[in-house]
Design the sequence.
Protein backbone atom coordinates (compact mmCIF):
# COMPACT_ATOMS: atom_id res chain seq x y z
CA UNK A 1 0.00 0.00 0.00
CA UNK A 2 2.95 2.34 0.80
CA UNK A 3 5.69 1.79 -1.76
CA UNK A 4 7.87 4.43 -0.05
CA UNK A 5 7.98 2.45 3.22
CA UNK A 6 8.85 -0.80 1.38
CA UNK A 7 11.71 0.89 -0.40
CA UNK A 8 13.00 2.34 2.87
CA UNK A 9 12.93 -1.11 4.54
CA UNK A 10 14.82 -2.68 1.65
CA UNK A 11 17.46 0.04 1.85
CA UNK A 12 17.79 -0.50 5.61
CA UNK A 13 18.39 -4.23 5.16
CA UNK A 14 21.04 -3.58 2.52
CA UNK A 15 22.86 -1.11 4.78
CA UNK A 16 22.76 -3.58 7.70
CA UNK A 17 24.31 -6.31 5.57
CA UNK A 18 27.02 -3.95 4.42
CA UNK A 19 27.97 -3.05 7.99
CA UNK A 20 28.21 -6.69 8.93
CA UNK A 21 30.59 -7.36 6.04
CA UNK A 22 32.86 -4.45 7.08
CA UNK A 23 33.69 -6.29 10.24
CA UNK A 24 32.88 -6.43 13.89
CA UNK A 25 29.88 -8.61 13.58
CA UNK A 26 26.39 -7.68 14.35
CA UNK A 27 27.26 -5.80 17.51
CA UNK A 28 29.61 -3.47 15.73
CA UNK A 29 27.23 -3.16 12.91
CA UNK A 30 24.49 -2.33 15.38
CA UNK A 31 26.56 0.45 16.82
CA UNK A 32 27.51 1.84 13.47
CA UNK A 33 23.92 1.75 12.31
CA UNK A 34 22.68 4.07 15.06
CA UNK A 35 23.81 7.05 13.01
CA UNK A 36 21.89 5.80 10.02
CA UNK A 37 18.53 5.35 11.70
CA UNK A 38 17.51 8.95 11.48
CA UNK A 39 18.70 9.13 7.89
CA UNK A 40 16.77 6.03 6.84
CA UNK A 41 13.70 7.29 8.57
CA UNK A 42 13.97 10.60 6.76
CA UNK A 43 14.65 8.89 3.43
CA UNK A 44 11.55 6.74 3.82
CA UNK A 45 9.57 9.86 4.68
CA UNK A 46 10.84 11.76 1.64
CA UNK A 47 10.00 8.89 -0.70
CA UNK A 48 6.32 9.17 0.30
CA UNK A 49 6.10 12.95 -0.15
CA UNK A 50 5.13 14.17 -3.65
CA UNK A 51 7.70 16.14 -5.54
CA UNK A 52 6.00 19.47 -5.00
CA UNK A 53 8.87 20.69 -2.84
CA UNK A 54 12.03 20.49 -4.89
CA UNK A 55 14.18 21.32 -1.85
CA UNK A 56 13.40 17.86 -0.37
CA UNK A 57 16.13 15.49 -1.65
CA UNK A 58 18.36 12.73 -0.44
CA UNK A 59 20.85 14.25 1.97
CA UNK A 60 24.42 13.41 1.15
CA UNK A 61 27.69 15.15 0.75
CA UNK A 62 27.53 17.92 -1.81
CA UNK A 63 30.59 18.37 -3.96
CA UNK A 64 31.23 21.95 -5.04
CA UNK A 65 33.86 23.05 -7.51
CA UNK A 66 35.67 26.36 -7.49
CA UNK A 67 38.19 27.83 -9.90
CA UNK A 68 41.51 29.05 -8.49
CA UNK A 69 43.16 31.69 -10.63
CA UNK A 70 46.93 31.49 -10.55
CA UNK A 71 49.49 34.10 -11.44
CA UNK A 72 50.07 32.75 -14.82
CA UNK A 73 46.48 33.27 -15.76
CA UNK A 74 45.76 29.55 -15.78
CA UNK A 75 43.06 28.26 -13.61
CA UNK A 76 42.54 24.81 -12.18
CA UNK A 77 39.41 23.24 -10.90
CA UNK A 78 39.75 21.62 -7.49
CA UNK A 79 36.94 19.78 -5.83
CA UNK A 80 35.65 21.31 -2.63
CA UNK A 81 33.56 19.21 -0.29
CA UNK A 82 31.00 20.82 2.02
CA UNK A 83 29.26 18.87 4.67
CA UNK A 84 25.50 18.68 4.65
CA UNK A 85 23.67 20.29 7.55
CA UNK A 86 22.70 18.06 10.47
CA UNK A 87 19.78 15.77 9.87
CA UNK A 88 17.71 17.07 12.74
CA UNK A 89 18.09 20.67 11.57
CA UNK A 90 17.15 19.76 7.97
CA UNK A 91 14.14 17.82 9.15
CA UNK A 92 13.01 20.73 11.32
CA UNK A 93 13.39 23.17 8.39
CA UNK A 94 11.40 20.97 6.06
CA UNK A 95 8.68 20.38 8.65
CA UNK A 96 8.38 24.10 9.20
CA UNK A 97 8.00 24.65 5.46
CA UNK A 98 5.32 22.00 5.22
CA UNK A 99 3.38 23.46 8.14
CA UNK A 100 3.63 27.02 6.89
CA UNK A 101 0.52 28.17 4.89
CA UNK A 102 0.92 28.54 1.15
CA UNK A 103 1.32 32.09 -0.02
CA UNK A 104 -1.19 32.87 -2.74
CA UNK A 105 -1.59 36.10 -4.68
CA UNK A 106 -5.07 37.62 -4.57
CA UNK A 107 -7.15 36.63 -7.64
CA UNK A 108 -8.57 39.44 -9.72
CA UNK A 109 -11.74 38.18 -11.46
CA UNK A 110 -13.54 40.46 -13.89
CA UNK A 111 -17.23 39.62 -14.04
CA UNK A 112 -18.77 40.13 -17.50
CA UNK A 113 -22.31 41.50 -17.53
CA UNK A 114 -24.44 39.15 -19.62
CA UNK A 115 -28.15 39.60 -20.33
CA UNK A 116 -30.09 36.59 -19.17
CA UNK A 117 -31.58 34.63 -22.06
CA UNK A 118 -35.34 34.47 -22.04
CA UNK A 119 -37.16 31.27 -22.81
CA UNK A 120 -40.25 32.20 -24.84
CA UNK A 121 -41.48 28.67 -25.44
CA UNK A 122 -42.86 27.08 -28.60
CA UNK A 123 -45.94 29.32 -28.69
CA UNK A 124 -45.47 32.90 -27.53
CA UNK A 125 -48.22 35.36 -28.41
CA UNK A 126 -47.90 37.90 -25.62
CA UNK A 127 -46.53 40.64 -27.89
CA UNK A 128 -48.71 39.79 -30.93
CA UNK A 129 -50.95 42.45 -32.41
CA UNK A 130 -54.51 41.77 -33.54
CA UNK A 131 -56.91 43.93 -35.52
CA UNK A 132 -60.31 44.96 -34.28
CA UNK A 133 -62.14 42.82 -36.84
CA UNK A 134 -60.27 39.68 -35.79
CA UNK A 135 -60.80 40.49 -32.11
CA UNK A 136 -64.57 40.75 -32.65
CA UNK A 137 -64.82 37.63 -34.82
CA UNK A 138 -62.39 35.30 -33.03
CA UNK A 139 -63.07 36.30 -29.42
CA UNK A 140 -66.77 37.16 -29.71
CA UNK A 141 -66.35 40.72 -28.45
CA UNK A 142 -68.19 43.93 -29.20
CA UNK A 143 -66.72 47.17 -30.43
CA UNK A 144 -67.57 48.74 -27.07
CA UNK A 145 -65.40 46.13 -25.34
CA UNK A 146 -62.40 47.16 -27.43
CA UNK A 147 -62.71 50.83 -26.48
CA UNK A 148 -61.37 50.04 -23.01
CA UNK A 149 -58.20 48.37 -24.32
CA UNK A 150 -54.86 49.91 -25.22
CA UNK A 151 -54.79 51.13 -28.83
CA UNK A 152 -51.59 51.02 -30.87
CA UNK A 153 -51.06 52.74 -34.22
CA UNK A 154 -49.06 50.66 -36.68
CA UNK A 155 -47.95 51.03 -40.27
CA UNK A 156 -50.65 49.74 -42.61
CA UNK A 157 -49.84 46.93 -45.06
CA UNK A 158 -52.38 48.32 -47.56
CA UNK A 159 -51.62 50.92 -50.19
CA UNK A 160 -54.73 53.01 -49.58
CA UNK A 161 -54.06 53.73 -45.87
CA UNK A 162 -50.97 54.97 -44.04
CA UNK A 163 -51.65 53.46 -40.59
CA UNK A 164 -54.31 51.57 -38.68
CA UNK A 165 -55.19 50.66 -35.09
CA UNK A 166 -54.31 47.31 -33.53
CA UNK A 167 -54.58 45.79 -30.06
CA UNK A 168 -52.34 43.54 -28.00
CA UNK A 169 -53.50 39.95 -28.24
CA UNK A 170 -52.90 39.43 -24.53
CA UNK A 171 -55.26 42.33 -23.73
CA UNK A 172 -57.92 40.93 -26.06
CA UNK A 173 -57.65 37.45 -24.53
CA UNK A 174 -57.93 38.87 -21.02
CA UNK A 175 -60.97 40.91 -22.06
CA UNK A 176 -62.61 37.84 -23.61
CA UNK A 177 -62.12 35.89 -20.39
CA UNK A 178 -63.57 38.81 -18.46
CA UNK A 179 -66.64 38.95 -20.71
CA UNK A 180 -67.33 35.21 -21.05
CA UNK A 181 -65.93 33.98 -17.76
CA UNK A 182 -64.01 30.94 -19.05
CA UNK A 183 -62.48 29.40 -22.15
CA UNK A 184 -65.23 26.78 -22.28
CA UNK A 185 -67.94 29.44 -22.43
CA UNK A 186 -66.01 31.25 -25.19
CA UNK A 187 -65.72 28.02 -27.20
CA UNK A 188 -69.47 27.40 -26.89
CA UNK A 189 -70.23 30.91 -28.11
CA UNK A 190 -67.90 30.44 -31.09
CA UNK A 191 -69.69 27.22 -32.04
CA UNK A 192 -73.08 28.90 -31.85
CA UNK A 193 -71.95 31.80 -34.01
CA UNK A 194 -70.44 29.42 -36.57
CA UNK A 195 -73.74 27.57 -36.88
CA UNK A 196 -75.58 30.89 -37.25
CA UNK A 197 -73.15 31.95 -39.98
CA UNK A 198 -73.71 28.74 -41.94
CA UNK A 199 -77.47 29.18 -41.68
CA UNK A 200 -77.16 32.81 -42.83
CA UNK A 201 -75.17 31.77 -45.91
CA UNK A 202 -77.78 29.18 -46.81
CA UNK A 203 -80.57 31.77 -46.54
CA UNK A 204 -78.52 34.23 -48.57
CA UNK A 205 -78.03 31.65 -51.33
CA UNK A 206 -81.76 30.94 -51.43
CA UNK A 207 -82.59 34.66 -51.50
CA UNK A 208 -80.13 35.29 -54.32
CA UNK A 209 -81.69 32.48 -56.35
CA UNK A 210 -85.18 33.90 -55.73
CA UNK A 211 -84.02 37.38 -56.76
CA UNK A 212 -82.44 35.96 -59.91
CA UNK A 213 -85.67 34.19 -60.84
CA UNK A 214 -87.62 37.35 -60.08
CA UNK A 215 -85.30 39.38 -62.33
CA UNK A 216 -85.65 36.88 -65.17
CA UNK A 217 -89.43 37.06 -64.89
CA UNK A 218 -89.78 40.86 -64.77
CA UNK A 219 -86.72 41.79 -66.78
CA UNK A 220 -83.33 42.88 -65.62
CA UNK A 221 -83.08 46.65 -65.27
CA UNK A 222 -79.68 46.78 -63.59
CA UNK A 223 -76.92 48.85 -65.23
CA UNK A 224 -74.51 47.09 -67.56
CA UNK A 225 -72.03 45.04 -65.56
CA UNK A 226 -68.30 44.90 -66.01
CA UNK A 227 -68.50 41.39 -67.47
CA UNK A 228 -70.75 42.63 -70.28
CA UNK A 229 -68.81 45.80 -71.03
CA UNK A 230 -65.63 43.81 -71.57
CA UNK A 231 -67.13 42.31 -74.74
CA UNK A 232 -67.53 45.74 -76.34
CA UNK A 233 -63.81 46.35 -76.84
CA UNK A 234 -60.48 44.61 -77.14
CA UNK A 235 -60.26 40.79 -77.13
CA UNK A 236 -63.87 40.46 -75.99
CA UNK A 237 -65.09 42.27 -79.10
CA UNK A 238 -62.96 40.03 -81.35
CA UNK A 239 -64.34 36.88 -79.68
CA UNK A 240 -67.97 37.99 -80.07
CA UNK A 241 -67.49 38.82 -83.76
CA UNK A 242 -65.87 35.43 -84.32
CA UNK A 243 -68.72 33.59 -82.54
CA UNK A 244 -71.34 35.23 -84.74
CA UNK A 245 -69.49 34.63 -88.02
CA UNK A 246 -68.43 31.05 -87.24
CA UNK A 247 -71.93 30.18 -86.10
CA UNK A 248 -73.38 31.26 -89.46
CA UNK A 249 -70.62 29.49 -91.38
CA UNK A 250 -71.22 26.29 -89.43
CA UNK A 251 -74.93 26.35 -90.25
CA UNK A 252 -74.43 26.85 -94.00
CA UNK A 253 -71.59 24.35 -94.26
CA UNK A 254 -73.72 21.63 -92.70
CA UNK A 255 -76.44 22.40 -95.25
CA UNK A 256 -73.90 22.10 -98.08
CA UNK A 257 -72.59 18.78 -96.69
CA UNK A 258 -76.10 17.38 -96.45
CA UNK A 259 -76.77 18.46 -100.04
CA UNK A 260 -73.47 17.30 -101.59
CA UNK A 261 -72.15 14.61 -99.23
CA UNK A 262 -68.59 15.96 -99.63
CA UNK A 263 -66.05 14.78 -97.05
CA UNK A 264 -64.16 18.06 -97.35
CA UNK A 265 -67.38 20.00 -96.72
CA UNK A 266 -68.10 17.83 -93.69
CA UNK A 267 -64.62 18.63 -92.36
CA UNK A 268 -65.23 22.34 -92.88
CA UNK A 269 -68.60 22.11 -91.10
CA UNK A 270 -66.99 20.31 -88.17
CA UNK A 271 -64.19 22.89 -88.22
CA UNK A 272 -66.67 25.77 -87.93
CA UNK A 273 -68.61 23.96 -85.20
CA UNK A 274 -65.46 23.41 -83.12
CA UNK A 275 -64.46 27.04 -83.66
CA UNK A 276 -67.84 28.25 -82.44
CA UNK A 277 -67.73 26.07 -79.33
CA UNK A 278 -64.16 27.03 -78.53
CA UNK A 279 -64.91 30.72 -78.90
CA UNK A 280 -67.79 30.27 -76.51
CA UNK A 281 -65.25 28.91 -74.01
CA UNK A 282 -63.06 31.94 -74.68
CA UNK A 283 -65.97 34.26 -73.94
CA UNK A 284 -66.56 32.45 -70.65
CA UNK A 285 -62.86 32.78 -69.76
CA UNK A 286 -62.87 36.50 -70.54
CA UNK A 287 -65.94 37.12 -68.39
CA UNK A 288 -64.37 35.21 -65.47
CA UNK A 289 -60.97 36.89 -65.82
CA UNK A 290 -62.31 40.37 -65.04
CA UNK A 291 -63.90 39.35 -61.74
CA UNK A 292 -62.71 41.10 -58.62
CA UNK A 293 -60.20 39.12 -56.50
CA UNK A 294 -61.66 37.52 -53.38
CA UNK A 295 -60.10 35.91 -50.28
CA UNK A 296 -60.10 32.52 -52.01
CA UNK A 297 -58.31 33.94 -55.08
CA UNK A 298 -56.21 36.88 -53.87
CA UNK A 299 -54.40 37.31 -57.20
CA UNK A 300 -57.58 37.41 -59.24
CA UNK A 301 -58.91 35.27 -62.09
CA UNK A 302 -56.76 36.51 -64.98
CA UNK A 303 -55.49 32.97 -65.66
CA UNK A 304 -59.00 31.95 -66.73
CA UNK A 305 -58.16 33.21 -70.23
CA UNK A 306 -55.26 30.78 -70.46
CA UNK A 307 -57.39 27.96 -69.05
CA UNK A 308 -60.19 28.56 -71.57
CA UNK A 309 -57.64 28.82 -74.39
CA UNK A 310 -56.08 25.53 -73.30
CA UNK A 311 -59.48 23.82 -73.28
CA UNK A 312 -60.15 25.37 -76.67
CA UNK A 313 -56.93 23.88 -78.06
CA UNK A 314 -57.88 20.45 -76.74
CA UNK A 315 -61.36 20.85 -78.26
CA UNK A 316 -59.91 21.75 -81.65
CA UNK A 317 -57.76 18.65 -81.56
CA UNK A 318 -60.54 16.30 -80.46
CA UNK A 319 -63.48 17.65 -82.47
CA UNK A 320 -61.84 19.34 -85.44
CA UNK A 321 -58.78 17.25 -86.17
CA UNK A 322 -60.20 13.94 -84.89
CA UNK A 323 -63.48 14.04 -86.84
CA UNK A 324 -61.80 15.34 -89.97
CA UNK A 325 -59.29 12.50 -89.93
CA UNK A 326 -62.03 9.98 -89.26
CA UNK A 327 -64.19 11.21 -92.14
CA UNK A 328 -61.23 11.41 -94.49
CA UNK A 329 -60.12 7.85 -93.70
CA UNK A 330 -63.66 6.55 -94.13
CA UNK A 331 -63.82 8.32 -97.52
CA UNK A 332 -60.61 6.62 -98.61
CA UNK A 333 -61.86 3.21 -97.50
CA UNK A 334 -65.40 3.63 -98.86
CA UNK A 335 -65.41 6.27 -101.65
CA UNK A 336 -68.83 7.46 -102.79
CA UNK A 337 -69.83 9.68 -105.73
CA UNK A 338 -70.82 13.30 -104.94
CA UNK A 339 -73.66 15.44 -106.24
CA UNK A 340 -73.32 18.91 -107.77
CA UNK A 341 -70.75 21.01 -105.94
CA UNK A 342 -72.02 24.43 -107.08
CA UNK A 343 -73.67 25.30 -103.80
CA UNK A 344 -70.66 24.01 -101.93
CA UNK A 345 -68.42 26.39 -103.86
CA UNK A 346 -70.71 29.31 -103.10
CA UNK A 347 -70.74 28.52 -99.38
CA UNK A 348 -66.96 28.12 -99.34
CA UNK A 349 -66.59 31.49 -101.03
CA UNK A 350 -68.82 33.12 -98.41
CA UNK A 351 -66.87 31.40 -95.64
CA UNK A 352 -63.62 32.64 -97.11
CA UNK A 353 -64.86 36.23 -97.01
CA UNK A 354 -66.31 36.01 -93.49
CA UNK A 355 -63.33 34.15 -92.02
CA UNK A 356 -61.00 36.62 -93.69
CA UNK A 357 -62.87 39.54 -92.10
CA UNK A 358 -62.60 37.96 -88.66
CA UNK A 359 -58.90 37.32 -89.26
CA UNK A 360 -58.33 40.99 -90.09
CA UNK A 361 -60.12 42.07 -86.89
CA UNK A 362 -57.88 39.75 -84.84
CA UNK A 363 -54.73 40.95 -86.61
CA UNK A 364 -55.56 44.60 -85.96
CA UNK A 365 -56.25 43.94 -82.29
CA UNK A 366 -53.00 42.02 -81.83
CA UNK A 367 -50.99 44.69 -83.66
CA UNK A 368 -52.48 47.38 -81.41
CA UNK A 369 -51.68 45.37 -78.26
CA UNK A 370 -48.14 44.63 -79.46
CA UNK A 371 -47.47 48.33 -80.02
CA UNK A 372 -48.82 49.16 -76.55
CA UNK A 373 -46.38 46.63 -75.02
CA UNK A 374 -43.45 47.81 -77.09
CA UNK A 375 -42.84 44.50 -78.86
CA UNK A 376 -43.15 43.10 -82.36
CA UNK A 377 -46.27 41.44 -83.72
CA UNK A 378 -44.58 38.07 -84.21
CA UNK A 379 -43.06 38.06 -80.72
CA UNK A 380 -46.36 39.05 -79.14
CA UNK A 381 -48.16 36.17 -80.87
CA UNK A 382 -45.50 33.56 -80.12
CA UNK A 383 -45.43 34.47 -76.41
CA UNK A 384 -49.23 34.28 -76.23
CA UNK A 385 -49.54 37.52 -74.26
CA UNK A 386 -53.22 37.78 -75.26
CA UNK A 387 -54.44 34.15 -75.35
CA UNK A 388 -58.02 34.86 -76.42
CA UNK A 389 -57.10 36.91 -79.46
CA UNK A 390 -54.34 34.43 -80.23
CA UNK A 391 -56.88 31.62 -80.46
CA UNK A 392 -59.07 33.68 -82.80
CA UNK A 393 -56.06 34.52 -84.98
CA UNK A 394 -54.94 30.92 -85.31
CA UNK A 395 -58.44 29.53 -85.76
CA UNK A 396 -59.29 32.03 -88.49
CA UNK A 397 -55.95 31.46 -90.20
CA UNK A 398 -56.61 27.74 -90.15
CA UNK A 399 -60.15 28.38 -91.39
CA UNK A 400 -58.97 30.42 -94.38
CA UNK A 401 -56.34 27.82 -95.26
CA UNK A 402 -58.88 25.03 -94.70
CA UNK A 403 -61.36 26.67 -97.09
CA UNK A 404 -58.63 26.88 -99.71
CA UNK A 405 -57.67 23.23 -99.20
CA UNK A 406 -61.31 22.09 -99.34
CA UNK A 407 -62.05 24.13 -102.48
CA UNK A 408 -58.92 22.81 -104.22
CA UNK A 409 -59.67 19.16 -103.43
CA UNK A 410 -63.32 19.55 -104.37
CA UNK A 411 -62.27 21.11 -107.67
CA UNK A 412 -59.93 18.20 -108.40
CA UNK A 413 -62.76 15.80 -107.62
CA UNK A 414 -65.10 17.70 -110.00
CA UNK A 415 -62.51 17.68 -112.79
CA UNK A 416 -61.34 14.07 -112.44
CA UNK A 417 -64.45 12.51 -110.96
CA UNK A 418 -62.28 10.75 -108.36
CA UNK A 419 -63.67 11.16 -104.80
CA UNK A 420 -60.29 10.29 -103.27
CA UNK A 421 -59.11 13.89 -103.72
CA UNK A 422 -61.99 15.06 -101.54
CA UNK A 423 -61.01 12.57 -98.82
CA UNK A 424 -57.41 13.77 -99.01
CA UNK A 425 -58.69 17.31 -98.53
CA UNK A 426 -60.46 16.20 -95.33
CA UNK A 427 -57.20 14.71 -94.05
CA UNK A 428 -55.36 17.94 -94.91
CA UNK A 429 -57.86 20.06 -92.97
CA UNK A 430 -57.56 17.68 -90.00
CA UNK A 431 -53.77 17.91 -90.05
CA UNK A 432 -53.95 21.71 -90.14
CA UNK A 433 -56.27 21.75 -87.12
CA UNK A 434 -53.96 19.35 -85.26
CA UNK A 435 -50.99 21.70 -85.74
CA UNK A 436 -53.01 24.70 -84.51
CA UNK A 437 -54.27 22.81 -81.46
CA UNK A 438 -50.75 21.63 -80.57
CA UNK A 439 -49.47 25.23 -80.68
CA UNK A 440 -52.32 26.50 -78.50
CA UNK A 441 -51.87 23.72 -75.94
CA UNK A 442 -48.10 24.25 -75.61
CA UNK A 443 -48.23 28.06 -75.33
CA UNK A 444 -51.05 28.10 -72.77
CA UNK A 445 -49.45 25.38 -70.65
CA UNK A 446 -46.28 27.45 -70.55
CA UNK A 447 -48.26 30.50 -69.46
CA UNK A 448 -50.13 28.57 -66.74
CA UNK A 449 -46.89 27.19 -65.32
CA UNK A 450 -45.75 30.73 -64.42
CA UNK A 451 -43.80 32.21 -67.29
CA UNK A 452 -41.20 34.85 -66.61
CA UNK A 453 -41.38 38.29 -68.16
CA UNK A 454 -38.79 39.55 -70.62
CA UNK A 455 -35.15 39.67 -69.36
CA UNK A 456 -34.91 43.34 -70.34
CA UNK A 457 -37.89 44.16 -68.15
CA UNK A 458 -36.46 42.15 -65.24
CA UNK A 459 -33.16 44.01 -65.62
CA UNK A 460 -34.95 47.37 -65.56
CA UNK A 461 -36.81 46.50 -62.35
CA UNK A 462 -33.62 45.21 -60.72
CA UNK A 463 -31.63 48.32 -61.61
CA UNK A 464 -34.40 50.50 -60.19
CA UNK A 465 -34.07 48.76 -56.82
CA UNK A 466 -30.26 48.67 -56.81
CA UNK A 467 -30.07 52.40 -57.48
CA UNK A 468 -31.70 53.10 -54.11
CA UNK A 469 -29.20 54.09 -51.36
CA UNK A 470 -30.70 51.72 -48.78
CA UNK A 471 -30.21 48.65 -50.98
CA UNK A 472 -26.89 46.84 -51.14
CA UNK A 473 -27.79 43.96 -53.45
CA UNK A 474 -30.72 42.12 -55.03
CA UNK A 475 -30.87 38.32 -55.06
CA UNK A 476 -33.25 35.57 -56.21
CA UNK A 477 -35.32 37.79 -58.53
CA UNK A 478 -38.54 36.22 -59.84
CA UNK A 479 -40.93 38.13 -62.12
CA UNK A 480 -43.85 36.14 -63.50
CA UNK A 481 -46.62 37.07 -65.90
CA UNK A 482 -50.09 36.75 -64.34
CA UNK A 483 -51.90 37.46 -67.60
CA UNK A 484 -53.77 40.55 -68.82
CA UNK A 485 -50.56 42.55 -68.59
CA UNK A 486 -50.16 41.94 -64.85
CA UNK A 487 -46.77 41.09 -63.37
CA UNK A 488 -45.81 39.69 -59.99
CA UNK A 489 -42.32 40.65 -58.79
CA UNK A 490 -40.43 38.94 -55.96
CA UNK A 491 -36.85 39.50 -54.78
CA UNK A 492 -34.52 39.04 -51.81
CA UNK A 493 -33.19 42.46 -50.79
CA UNK A 494 -29.97 43.00 -48.83
CA UNK A 495 -30.51 46.32 -47.06
CA UNK A 496 -27.74 48.61 -45.83
CA UNK A 497 -28.30 48.76 -42.07
CA UNK A 498 -26.29 51.96 -41.71
CA UNK A 499 -28.47 53.85 -44.19
CA UNK A 500 -31.65 52.55 -42.55
CA UNK A 501 -30.37 53.50 -39.10
CA UNK A 502 -29.32 56.93 -40.35
CA UNK A 503 -32.79 57.51 -41.80
CA UNK A 504 -34.19 56.67 -38.37
CA UNK A 505 -31.76 58.96 -36.57
CA UNK A 506 -32.62 61.86 -38.88
CA UNK A 507 -36.10 61.88 -37.37
CA UNK A 508 -34.95 61.77 -33.72
CA UNK A 509 -34.01 64.43 -31.16
CA UNK A 510 -30.27 63.98 -30.60
CA UNK A 511 -30.25 65.90 -27.30
CA UNK A 512 -32.89 63.60 -25.88
CA UNK A 513 -31.03 60.51 -27.12
CA UNK A 514 -27.75 61.71 -25.56
CA UNK A 515 -29.55 62.25 -22.29
CA UNK A 516 -30.97 58.73 -22.45
CA UNK A 517 -27.49 57.33 -23.13
CA UNK A 518 -26.02 59.16 -20.14
CA UNK A 519 -28.72 57.70 -17.90
CA UNK A 520 -27.76 54.14 -18.84
CA UNK A 521 -25.89 52.71 -15.83
CA UNK A 522 -27.13 49.12 -15.46
CA UNK A 523 -27.73 46.23 -17.86
CA UNK A 524 -31.47 46.60 -17.33
CA UNK A 525 -31.38 50.23 -18.45
CA UNK A 526 -29.26 49.28 -21.45
CA UNK A 527 -31.76 46.58 -22.38
CA UNK A 528 -34.66 49.03 -22.17
CA UNK A 529 -32.80 51.56 -24.31
CA UNK A 530 -31.88 49.02 -26.99
CA UNK A 531 -35.37 47.47 -27.10
CA UNK A 532 -36.98 50.87 -27.57
CA UNK A 533 -34.79 52.04 -30.44
CA UNK A 534 -34.35 48.55 -31.93
CA UNK A 535 -38.09 48.21 -32.43
CA UNK A 536 -38.24 51.65 -34.01
CA UNK A 537 -35.39 50.77 -36.39
CA UNK A 538 -37.23 47.61 -37.45
CA UNK A 539 -40.32 49.74 -38.16
CA UNK A 540 -38.13 52.06 -40.21
CA UNK A 541 -36.91 49.08 -42.22
CA UNK A 542 -40.51 48.05 -42.90
CA UNK A 543 -41.28 51.59 -44.04
CA UNK A 544 -38.34 51.38 -46.46
CA UNK A 545 -39.76 48.16 -47.92
CA UNK A 546 -43.18 49.83 -48.39
CA UNK A 547 -41.55 52.83 -50.05
CA UNK A 548 -39.66 50.66 -52.52
CA UNK A 549 -42.76 48.65 -53.38
CA UNK A 550 -44.82 51.79 -54.05
CA UNK A 551 -42.07 53.32 -56.17
CA UNK A 552 -41.73 50.09 -58.18
CA UNK A 553 -45.47 50.02 -58.90
CA UNK A 554 -45.56 53.72 -59.72
CA UNK A 555 -42.80 53.53 -62.34
CA UNK A 556 -44.03 50.21 -63.75
CA UNK A 557 -47.85 50.12 -63.86
CA UNK A 558 -47.85 46.52 -65.12
CA UNK A 559 -46.35 45.38 -61.79
CA UNK A 560 -49.39 44.69 -59.62
CA UNK A 561 -47.92 42.51 -56.84
CA UNK A 562 -44.50 43.15 -55.26
CA UNK A 563 -42.95 40.89 -52.61
CA UNK A 564 -39.65 42.21 -51.26
CA UNK A 565 -38.11 39.89 -48.67
CA UNK A 566 -35.40 41.12 -46.30
CA UNK A 567 -32.22 39.10 -46.64
Sequence:
Amino acid sequence: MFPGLAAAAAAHRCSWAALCRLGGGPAVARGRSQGWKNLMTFESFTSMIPSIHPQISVLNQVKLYSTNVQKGGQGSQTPRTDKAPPLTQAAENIGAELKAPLKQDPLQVRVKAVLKKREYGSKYTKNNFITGVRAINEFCLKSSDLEQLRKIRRRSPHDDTESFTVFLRSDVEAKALEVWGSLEALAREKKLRKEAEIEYRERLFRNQRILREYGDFLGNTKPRSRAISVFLKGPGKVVMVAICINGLNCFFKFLAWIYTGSASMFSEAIHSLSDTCNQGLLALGISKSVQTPDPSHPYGFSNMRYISSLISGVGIFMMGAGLSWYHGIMGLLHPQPMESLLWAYCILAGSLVSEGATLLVAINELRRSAQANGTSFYKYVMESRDPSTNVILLEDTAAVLGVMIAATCMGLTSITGNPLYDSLGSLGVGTLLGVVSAFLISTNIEALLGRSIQPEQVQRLTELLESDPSVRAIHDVKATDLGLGKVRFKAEVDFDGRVVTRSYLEKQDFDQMMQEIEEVKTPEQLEAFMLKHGENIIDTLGAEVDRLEKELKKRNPEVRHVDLEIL
Q: What stands out?
A: The CA atoms of residues 13 and 316 lie 120 Å apart.
